[in-house]
Design brief:
5 helices, 18% helix
Length: 294
């Protein structure tokens, strides 16, 4: 019973900016089979250089030595990513509620971004570590077909100030990945990076001064590769190659299928399935929070 006061709509919900899905590339697909997970061929080149001994000039007056034989410098492997589903359930009386589907869909929209980011950081969905690949990982996972699902986060630096930590993380990222990568930051670390003037906002996105995308995840836990919580006043940040993802349409149970007659309750469920992956690099850095002192 609402009482004598007027029933109104609550304020509009606005998702926070700089989220994971906003930064992810979204490949086109003509099949729903991605919802069983995806496999791709990952090529992570290091490259090299050589010269033509007939054209080279050394400045010493003598001919250069014969160039070394060319060798393979492109690593290729099969990688995979597994699906997970974000769920919002709204239980209510079946009497007098005509917009249960709308309520369930709205509830999903409010928690979806945070839940996706939490799964991508921790690898946990439904209480189990089943989301691969994810950020906070210190063990490799390979499936029964020898497809790499999970890489180990290599630690660039520990206990460093924001500028040093981000610099060393991006230096290793540049060695591993010649293109634009992604820096993954828990919200607790954002004010520190901003205080050190390490971020740039452009067209609604955040970038480092080196040009890498920055994701500030409301669901990012800030934990280390082994899953442990950082000490007070510190956090972990991660770097990867480009992130890509697939997501399905929102699925809502019909009112007919949602009725639990034993309890005379409607269980309205809204859900959406995701698959997320990233290229080549997987790096971590332990950052000390706080503003510059000089």
């Amino acid at each position: 019973m609402a009482g004598a006061r007027q029933i109104i709509d609550g304020p509009a919900f606005t998702p926070l900016p700089y989220g994971l899905w906003d930064a992810a590339q979204k490949p086109a697909t003509d099949s729903p089979h991605w919802q069983q997970g995806v496999t791709w061929i990952e090529r992570c080149p290091t490259g090299g250089s050589t010269y033509d001994e007939c054209l080279a000039v050394t400045g010493t007056g003598g001919p250069p030595p014969e160039p070394p034989a060319k060798a393979a410098n492109v690593d290729q492997e099969f990688r995979g990513a597994t699906p997970f589903t974000v769920v919002a359930e709204f239980d209510c009386s079946p009497v007098g509620l005509r917009d249960a589907e709308t309520v369930a869909s709205d509830a999903l929209a409010r928690v979806e971004q945070q839940q996706v980011e939490a799964a991508f950081w921790t690898g946990v969905a439904g209480g189990q570590e089943v989301v691969f690949p994810h950020l906070a990982a210190d063990a490799e996972v390979v499936d029964g077909q020898d497809i790499l699902l999970q890489t180990v986060a290599s630690t660039a630096v520990t206990g460093a100030d924001a500028a040093q930590a981000l610099g060393e993380l991006e230096a290793e990222l540049a060695d591993c990945y010649a293109g634009q990568g992604v820096i993954h930051v828990p919200r607790v670390a954002l004010p520190t990076l901003a205080a050190w003037n390490l971020l740039i906002e452009r067209d609604g996105r955040l970038y480092t001064t080196a040009g890498n995308l920055v994701v500030v995840g409301g669901g990012y836990a800030g934990t280390g590769p082994d899953g442990s919580a950082p000490a007070d006043g510190t956090a972990w940040i991660y770097a990867t190659g480009a992130v890509f993802g697939y997501r399905g349409d929102v699925q809502v149970t019909s009112p007919r299928d949602s009725i639990d007659r034993s309890a005379n309750t409607m269980r309205m469920i809204a859900e959406r399935t995701y698959v997320l992956g990233f290229e080549c690099c997987h790096l971590a850095a332990h950052i000390v929070l706080g503003v510059p002192t000089s």
